[in-house]
Amino acid sequence: MTSKDSASYVFLAVVWGLSFLVMLRAVETFGWVGAVTFRCFIAAATLIAVAAVTGRRLNLASGWKAFAVVGATTVAGQLVGLCFAMPLIGTAMSAILVATIPLFSMLIARLWGIEKLTNRHLLGLALGFFGIVVLVGFPAVPFTASFALGCASTIAACLCAAFGSCYASYRLKNVSSWDTTAGAFLAGGIFTLPLLALVPVPGTPQPVDYLYLLILGALMSATTYVLYFRLVSTIGATKAISVEFAVTVVAVLVGALVLHEPLSLIQIGGAGTIILGCALVTGLISSFARQAG
């Protein structure tokens, strides 16, 4: 990666890791549908407004079908799944499961013929899925129906994120990351808006709650996803999405230190197994070995 790509990678890891805390606050105030819908529209509006002020030309019409797919998966599917699950299993557990996204990305890329699976990849996939079993089967909290539902929702969100990233890498490689982000979030907001009739905002938000929502939409969505989709186009979907490893570390620390969420030693071991598997899948371990050599 270039120095610009490396800086974007680190920025994404820190901001997305902290976003779990802000997302939880938004879900408590606006509900899991409202938090996603309003976040999407704020993100899209931010990019459109900045583009208008700076004279940047956005083209959201020609690629609307592809934007709709990415908006339905990477944006709406992922964020709805995470926001629904976090109150059920906590931010730390959600963040650990998010580390499985590169595993699913590799599987999808292999099915599409974009990447080939070697013995190293197969070992990484096996370790990753074993880690998921350990996490779900040996939680630090009682295993209840709501806990299982939260885990299933998070894994579904991870599948959506992996699919959307691979699709964007394949169909939107030559499209501006500004266009991709604005189009995807606009589509995501449109897809989730009707759900507000079923899951309305639970109460009356306070002014500070709108500030959290603005930060979530403008900084933690509009800014970060422009950088992320640029990384997808420059270094590929699987390598770009490996940033979720570092996101997991930041989010788990936030959950444990700020929210005092419990984690068992077995869960920590499962998390380590997932990260090891993902590192094998994305080639991080072999890359470090070559550099050391």
Number of individual domains: 1
Content of β-strand: under 5%
What is the alpha-carbon Rg in Å? 18 Å
Count of distinct strands: 0
The termini sit apart by 19 Å
For the biggest sheet, the summary is: none
**Whole-number mean pLDDT:** 81
What does the overall shape look like?
globular
Indicate the low-confidence ranges by residue numbers: none
Fraction of residues in helix: over 70%
Q: Structural class of the secondary structure composition?
A: mainly alpha
What is the count of helical runs?
Answer: 12
Helix-strand sequence: HHHHHHHHHHHH
Describe the secondary-structure layout.
Elements: H1 3-54, H2 64-89, H3 91-98, H4 101-111, H5 119-137, H6 145-171, H7 177-192, H8 207-235, H9 237-241, H10 243-257, H11 265-282, H12 284-292
